[in-house]
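Why does residue order matter? Because the sequence determines the fold. Keep that principle in mind as you read this record.
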Amino acid sequence: MEKQILIPVDGSRTSVQAVRYAARVSSFVRELHCVLFHVQAPVSLYLKEEAARDMHVRTQMNKALKKNEAAAMKILNELKSEMTDAGFLKTGSVF
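Structure:
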């Protein structure tokens, strides 16, 4: 029977340890699949309202959102690579 683990990651030591733990567990659990997802605070409603009114604020907010997305992808790719190096993909999969 397929088993899935949902692992929130934010780059913290605790989230990295959770990913490493899942990689170790994969050697004992058949058909284990992991979903890594990045967690970050949402943009405040106030900032969204300001961005709707002010082009400069909107530009700055969009730059910050793109920077956050790039940082999230970097974290996810690094952790996925770590799981692959630990042999996880031989027994399961990571999304």
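The mean pLDDT is 86.
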